UniProtKB/TrEMBL annotation:
Any one GO cellular component localisation term in the record: MKS complex
Gene that this polypeptide is encoded by: Tctn1
Protein name stated in the entry: TECT1 protein
Subunit structure: Part of the tectonic-like complex (also named B9 complex).
UniProt entry tagged with the keyword Glycoprotein: yes
Domain Tectonic-1-3 N-terminal: 10-122
Length: 547
């Protein structure tokens, strides 16, 4: 009937307006107070930033995709302009599906329900519901109608931004840490893109170890992480078993869960450490989660154990590199280094994206590591990372006999001093990215020859005897919070000449490596100028009657 149809249209027109402002939505805005590259909706980006963009990573931003008609924010770049400009349009988008929502008139889904005030009558009920370490954040209004189905997006969450807790089915991803004391608290959430490493003390009882949830692997992997479209299960990446004396063994298979149990007055398979590794896209969507476990045994005498937890985030299709500061270097952290891949005759930004590892798997600048035997030929391969701000000296002894060949010996000593693959570049900042060419400082290599040493090898030749690395750095940025920046690195190889050694004779030559850090910061200039000197003489009674 017409009156019923008119009443329905009136209710539709009076329905609450959508609460989502698509002009303020930005799923690619991941950095706090910084402009994200190619994120055209980032409010932190200026027109100068937009002029450097190559494309818009998120060209269209919409609200609820199930609405029949809604606003859509469209972003694009005008490359013909000089400089290029960002173009923003707000258009009406029509859903072609016949099954769509005409109006969002479910008021209980648009507003927060007023919290229940504790009273003597409902105090016990509220304590049972909210007194634990975690509780459900969903309002009761979702379950007012038992026959009503959950909305399609009830279990979905938006793409994550920096620092936002990583949500799971029941609450959030736990990263136990000490809060007030050194005891473990399981209420610490893991923040997105926030790398953390914690250690805390857990109270244990061997008789009840199989019932303590925090000692079980299931406690850390039984909840799926909520992503933007689907749920991501936490897989077991590896399992390391630690004995009572500290010996660790990597298990060949991690498919079988090892739950804590009591065996011969020992609690075995107890979780001693968990290392989460989260993989995400450039738009903040979590696509993979893995956990590496360290399991150990607990004796019956132990009343508590120390657990360690760590979480790291890596963007897909990128190689993770450990940072040594943000942005400037931190004293005591390794100096980051790498080398340019072969086959490229000129430096370019995309070449540094493939920066290979320098002298070890952590892309660090390293020197020879001293050993107890002090034998150079046995010390080959033993490296120590160069720590920023720490002057270091190491070395070994070379025993030379008449039977040694000079050229192979010289190459071996060079490998001992420089490592198998000496880096070509050093990161100027502790957080320098591989694609930022200007943030990598080339290492200048020098060769110096010393005077001849008598009574030595057959057919005199040159052998390297020392490597000296000088790192020049400066204080960069504000005087209130200066950041350490490396501006120059010089590696000097010193060689000496060897002559023939009589048969049956031996000689020992010291081989040394050293690192020196030099602060070349200019002293801060005063913000004021000195008062000019006035060369005049006051009258003798100028201050009369005062002396």
């Amino acid at each position: 009937p017409a009156d019923i149809r008119d009443a329905a249209q009136t209710r539709a027109r009076s329905a609450p307006a959508p609460v989502t402002d698509v002009a303020r939505l930005c799923v690619c805005d991941l950095l706090v107070a910084q402009c994200d590259v190619n994120c055209c909706c980032d409010p932190d980006c200026s027109p100068e930033d937009f002029s450097l963009f190559t494309s818009c990573s998120v060209p269209v931003v919409t609200g609820d995709s199930q609405l029949c008609s809604q606003k859509a924010a469209v972003y694009s770049l005008d490359v013909d302009a000089n400089p290029p400009e960002r173009i923003f349009k707000l258009i009406d988008q029509v859903n072609p599906s016949i099954f769509c929502i005409h109006a969002t008139n479910y008021k209980q889904a648009l507003y927060l329900k007023s919290p229940e005030i504790p009273t003597p009558e409902n105090f016990d009920q509220l304590l049972d519901k909210f007194g634990g370490a975690t509780f459900s954040a969903e309002p009761d209004s979702w379950n007012l109608d038992a026959d009503a189905q959950n909305p399609p997006d009830a279990n979905e969450t938006s793409r994550y931004e920096y620092g936002v807790p990583v949500q799971t089915e029941d609450a959030f991803l736990r990263l136990p840490s000490p809060v007030v004391s050194s005891w473990c608290s399981d209420t610490n959430p893991a923040g997105f893109l926030v790398n953390q490493a914690t250690k805390c003390i857990r109270s244990v009882s061997v008789e009840k170890c199989d019932s303590i949830q925090a000692l079980s692997m299931l406690f850390y992997i039984n909840s799926s992480i909520l992503a933007s479209v689907f749920q991501v299960n936490i897989t077991v990446q590896s399992i390391v078993v630690q004995s009572l004396n500290g010996m660790r063994t990597l298990l060949s298979s991690s498919d079988v869960l090892r739950l804590p149990m009591v065996l011969d007055e020992l609690c075995i398979n107890a979780v001693l450490g968990v290392n989460y590794h989260i993989t995400h896209t450039d738009t903040g969507e979590i696509i993979e989660a893995a956990a590496a476990f360290v399991l150990g045994a607990i004796s019956k005498e132990a009343l508590s154990i120390e657990q360690s937890f760590e979480i790291s985030f890596t963007q897909e299709n990128t190689q993770p590199l450990p940072l040594s500061g943000n942005p400037g270097y931190v004293v005591g952290l390794p100096v980051r280094a790498g080398f340019q891949p072969q086959g490229y005759p000129f430096p370019a930004a995309f070449l540094f994206a493939a920066l290979a590892l320098s002298s070890n798997k952590h892309s660090q600048l390293t020197i020879l590591q001293s050993t107890s035997t002090q034998d150079c030929l046995a010390a080959q391969g033993a490296r120590a990372p160069v720590l920023f701000g720490y002057n270091m000296v190491s070395g070994c002894k070379l025993r030379i006999t008449a039977a040694m060949k000079c050229q192979p010996l010289a190459q071996t000593l060079l490998d001992v001093l420089k490592g198998q693959s000496f880096p070509e570049y050093v990161a100027s900042f502790g957080n320098s990215q591989t694609q930022d060419v200007l943030d990598w400082v080339p290492i200048t290599q020098l060769h110096i020859s010393e005077q001849m040493i008598s009574h030595t090898l057959q057919n005199s030749c040159q052998i390297p005897v020392s490597l000296g690395i000088e790192v020049k750095w400066t204080k960069y940025g504000s005087l209130v919070n200066p950041q350490a920046r490396i501006v120059n690195v010089t590696a000097t190889i010193t060689s000496t000449t060897l002559k023939q050694l009589p048969s049956g004779r031996e000689r020992i030559i010291p081989i040394t490596s050293s690192v020196v850090f030099t602060d070349i910061s200019s002293p801060a200039e005063p913000s004021y100028k000195a008062w000019p000197t006035i060369n005049i003489k006051l009258p003798f009674d100028f201050f009369y009657p005062f002396v």
